[in-house]
Amino acid sequence: MSDFFFESYLRKYSADGTLDCGCGRQHSLGAKRVLLGDGVLEGLPDLAAQMYGSGSSFWILSDENTETAAAARCKELLSRFHLSEVVLPARPRPRTTPELIQALAADAGGVSPDLILGVGGGTISDIGKMVSKIVGVPNWCVATAPSVDAYSSGTSALKLKGGHRTEACTPTEVIFAELAVLEQAPEKLFLSGIGDLLAKYLSYLDWSLSALITGEYICGEAAQLCLDSARQAIQAVKAQTADRKAAIRSLTDAILTSGFAMQGLTDSRPASSAEHTVAHFWEIAAAVGDPAFELHGLLVGLSCRILLEGYSEFYRDPAALEFAVDERLLALAAEPPWEQTLVPEMEPFRGQMKEEMSESVIDAEIYRLRLERIQNNVGSITELARRLLEELEGAVSILSSLSFPFRLSDFRIDPQQMLMPIRYIRFLRNRYRTFNLMHEVGLEKKILRHLEEQLSLLR
Ligand SMILES: [Zn+2]
Ligand SMILES: [Zn+2]
Which of 16, 122, 209, 404 has the fewest CB atoms in 10 Å of its CB? Predict the structure, then answer.
């Protein structure tokens, strides 16, 4: 028996990678194995020979940092196979652009490998999974940092000029999470992994909220699993000064679990909500003045800290959520279309917003239904929110004690740029979340003003 969350989740799937879940849907996984522990990397050549034959050929992708961290060792271990490789420069940091992916796929395709092996963090993992899809051969990964949930997810996060796109990729078949390697990862990457976990509290809240108000499908099991694995990791991190290795183990377990839940459901709902939309916006808008802090999980952590302020203010008083349905329907009908409210700074995002909003048709009947459901569930919604936000606040203070960068000045993000995606959050992603609830009950502007007033605290 093992005590990893991801293993208990994988065990539910049958040998062909499917699960008839209690949520009523069938989930499926392309992943076959995860090796997390001490010394697991040494098993790489034997497993490769066993699954692909001793004469097989590998195309190995790394960057200058991950080459030292693990890729050089992988190549040594795999020396009896046919190897070709690309080592990307460390600076500027590689980005998951379609151009880079195409160029690498051409390189890999040229040598017709049996397997793609990515050695690195989130970016290398995301690129490896896309190259694997384009070339049409499986991929494995050696994780070098517990920094993101990309390793086990079924999508790659692509960086485009006018936005961010999540694209289906070939999921990684075998993941090596060697503790000796992960422990050597820079502190910022460790913090980035934990920052990404903060999203689980808001995701759980917003997904449950949407299920209740809009009737959106929810997989209760996946949602709970992601939340629980994050909780355990945060507790382990709290005790990390005593046991660093246990903290890394638990954190890696949590990020793998969250990736698998997303892969199984082909949906990022269990692990990402408004905080991810905000963090992606900052990345795309080049809002981060200090490139050393431009790490996914650090940005997610910062945006969780900011959104916590807004969510807490909103859910603080259930009485404030009282409204008259007909009055709200009139007010909602009188609002100008979002296209007319765009400020010039948001122009580059118009296309993305248009695409998101094209799927969202909300007429008066839908609004009425939602408003009635809100009225009938105010008690349970605010109670759930109160519990989760309290936990998130606790997690934020644990991270603060580890010097997690929670201030805008750490990132050199301009306060106005910080607020921009929050102001337009409902249009940047077509997903029902707390900001939709705020809007429907008529409190969104009040909460935005509150956040503006709090800026001095976040600077
Ligand atoms: Zn994330
Ligand atoms: Zn399910």
Answer: 16
- Quote the pTM value: 0.92
174 C-alpha vs ligand 1 centroid, how far in Å?
21
Euclidean distance between CA atoms 128 and 153, whole angstroms: 12
In a domain, 429, yes or no: yes
Q: 203 and 338, same structural domain?
A: yes
How far is ligand 1, taken at its centre, from the CA of residue 114, in Å? 30
Distance (angstroms) between ligand 2 centre and the Cα of 220 equals 7
> Ligand 2 center to residue 161 CA distance, Å?
35
Expressed in angstroms and rounded, the spacing between residue 389 Cα and the centre of ligand 1 is 19
Question: pLDDT in tens for each of the 459 residues of the chain?
Answer: 458 999 999 999 999 999 999 999 999 999 889 999 999 999 999 999 999 999 999 999 999 999 999 999 999 999 999 999 999 999 888 999 999 999 999 999 999 999 999 999 999 999 999 999 999 999 999 999 999 899 999 999 888 876 778 899 999 999 999 999 999 999 999 999 999 999 999 999 999 999 999 999 999 999 999 999 999 899 888 876 668 888 999 999 999 999 999 999 988 899 999 999 999 899 888 889 998 899 999 999 999 999 999 999 999 988 889 999 999 999 999 999 999 999 999 998 999 899 999 987 789 999 999 999 999 999 999 999 999 999 999 999 999 999 999 999 999 998 888 899 999 999 999 999 999 999 999 999 999 999 999 887 777
Helix (H, G, I), strand (E, B) or coil at 79: coil
Domain range spanning residue 429? 193-218+269-458
Instruction: Note whether 117 and 171 are same-domain residues.
Output: yes
Q: Kindly give the distance from the C-alpha atom of residue 276 to the centroid of ligand 1, in angstroms, as a whole number.
A: 6
Please, what is the angle between helix 220-238 and helix 364-401, to 10°? 20
Q: What are phi and psi of 37, to 5 degrees?
A: 160, -165
